[in-house]
Design a protein that fits this description.
Strand content: under 5%
Largest sheet: none
Distance between the termini: 26 Å
Number of strands: 0
Order of helices and strands: HHHHHHH
Length: about 180
């Protein structure tokens, strides 16, 4: 399928995904969720909390904005964290677009317009993906990695303790995709 909004794919499997309507819809929704991550996260997390905060009687929100609560400073720190996560979302989007040969700003109505495809459940997937990056690749996620993976790895070590060639062991990991 040739279209001016699709560049030469950098990945051979891209064409089969782009030609299957359902696969394309899922891909486009995922890409769009990463594109909109910053706006949606700020809206759902801090914007609404600020609105509710300022809807309080003046004496109450002034009390909560002063020490020891410093609620507005807390929201600022949350905004900074959202922005850091949004930078990761932007990199994921860029990599996805490049991998599938898609343009960042597709022109007009065509089968490869991926803007506006994300639904609320897709935003949850984007948030979850960013959380997994944090857990699996940051030094701050080490405690969670140990808690999540430690018991599984200990069980695997125990189950295969007598196997001499550990490289010959194959383990199916549900949800990991085709390897």
């Amino acid at each position: 399928m040739s279209h001016p909004d699709v560049a030469k794919n950098h990945w051979d499997g891209a064409s089969s995904i782009l030609t299957d309507g359902e696969e394309r819809r899922v891909l486009f929704a995922a890409l769009d969720s990463f594109r909109q991550y910053r706006r949606i996260a700020h809206l759902n997390v801090t914007h609404r909390r600020r609105q509710n905060f300022y809807a309080l009687p003046s004496a109450e929100w002034q009390l909560l904005s002063a020490p020891p609560f410093n609620f507005l400073k807390t929201l600022e720190r949350v905004d900074d964290a959202i922005d850091a996560n949004a930078d990761i979302a932007a990199e994921i989007l860029e990599t996805g677009l490049e991998s599938f040969g898609l343009k960042k700003e597709p022109s007009g109505l065509n089968p490869f317009t991926w803007h506006g495809e994300a639904k609320s459940s897709d935003f949850d997937k984007a948030r979850s993906t960013i959380r997994q990056f944090y857990r699996d690749w940051s030094s701050e996620g080490a405690t969670e990695r140990r808690a999540s993976y430690g018991p599984v790895l200990r069980d695997i070590d125990g189950a295969f303790a007598k196997v001499a060639d550990k490289g010959a062991i194959k383990i199916l990991v549900p949800g990991a995709g085709k390897c």
